[in-house]
Amino acid sequence: MTGFLEMPACIADPWQLAALAGLGLGVGVATGLFGVGGAFLITPLLNILFNIPYTLATGSSMLFTIGTSVAAWIKHMRLGNVALKTMTILCGGAVCGTMLGARLHVFLKALAGEFNFTLVMHGIFIAVLAVTAFLVWRNRSDVRPAAPLLARVPGRPRITIRATGINNISLPGLCALGLLIGVVKGLLGIGGGVLFMPAMLLVIGLTIHQAIGTSLGVVLFSSIAGAIIYGRTGQVSLWIVLPLLAGSLAGVQAGVWLSRKLQAERIKKYFSILIILVIIAIIWDFISKFMPAAR
Questions:
Q1: 207: Cβ–Cβ under 8 A, 6 or more apart, which residues?
Q2: Is the Cα dihedral 79, 84, 89, 94 positive or negative?
Q3: Most CB atoms within 10 A, among 2, 88, 150, 284?
Q4: How far apart are CA 247 and CA 22, in angstroms?
């Protein structure tokens, strides 16, 4: 456990603080471009590159996500890329799910122990990111289904998403979607956009740019809940968060600018490639840690 203002021993070197700022720069570009909070990159990379325990990395990633998401979300709000009613409903489910996911995180850590818990988290990250990359890669924005999944599932009441003109969306299904992704968010510390964006494309039926802006809003408000939960147990460090935020400020601006210049298909392909690269890094670290332990 570490204090909010206490510098963790694993990043006491000034060069490591500079490296954290560089990591924040790259993640900021991803935040503005892909509509993700960036914690799906930050959480595993803090563990792999800086040897920061997953629980501290998870809590600090939540706080970092607030800083990056608010700037990008405001910009996308001005661009008209946010479906406000959809965002509000999803936020309710995601906040509740984040609290449940944080409890699951504590339970798994106590059950597995610190070293085994790192391997468990690596495995979960690989599975979640692989499914996300596959869904985004195979979905085509120019071939839209007659009705998104939530327009076909049973359950009342039903709502209309005015931003897209899609009718007959299941309100319980929308709440359940937010709850499910919130659980994963609370467990892994990811901002949620990495899951929300493909869900909004395939399940809700938003366009790629609406999915980016709306997911950022959900990421922002659910991350506030997550940062409070982890912060109460001392698993948030400003020494980790501030360098990341400093580097991400310029990156977010560049990412939002790029999202306006690139075609939707190219954004999705680049997003999938980025996730694959993160998966490779996690697998490499998993092997390097598991093989010595297995001998």
A1: 141, 164, 264
A2: positive
A3: 150
A4: 6
Q: Give the pairing type, strands 158-161 and 166-170.
A: antiparallel
* Of residues 105 and 164, more confidently modeled: 105
In this predicted model, what pLDDT tens digit does every residue of 237-264 receive, in sequence order? 888 888 888 888 878 788 878 877 777 6
Q: How many CB atoms lie within 10 A of CB 286?
A: 18
User: Backbone phi, then psi, for 222, in 5-degree steps?
Assistant: -75, -30
Helices 114-138 + 171-188 axis angle, to 10? 140
Full-model pTM: 0.78
Paired with 169 in beta bridges are 159
Q: Which of 37-41, 221-225, 248-252 has the highest mean pLDDT?
A: 221-225
CB 179, CB 101: distance < 8 Å: no
Largest Cα span, the chain:
59
pLDDT > 70? residue 295: no
Q: Which residues contact 254 (CB under 8 A, 6 or more apart)?
A: 28, 29, 32
Residue 144 has pLDDT above 60, yes or no: no
**DSSP assignment string, 231-269:** HTTT---HHHHHHHHHHHHHHHHHHHHHHHHS-HHHHHH
Q: Residue 182: CA atoms inside 13 Å, Cβ hemisphere, count?
A: 27
Task: Point out the least confidently predicted range of 172-186, 189-203, 237-251, 277-291.
Answer: 189-203
Angle, CA of 115, 116 and 121, to the nearest 5°: 100
The pLDDT of residue 290 is above 60: yes
Choose among 258, 280, 276, 236: nearest CA to 33: 258
The pLDDT of residue 142 is: 47
* C-alpha span between 5 and 236 (Å, rounded): 9
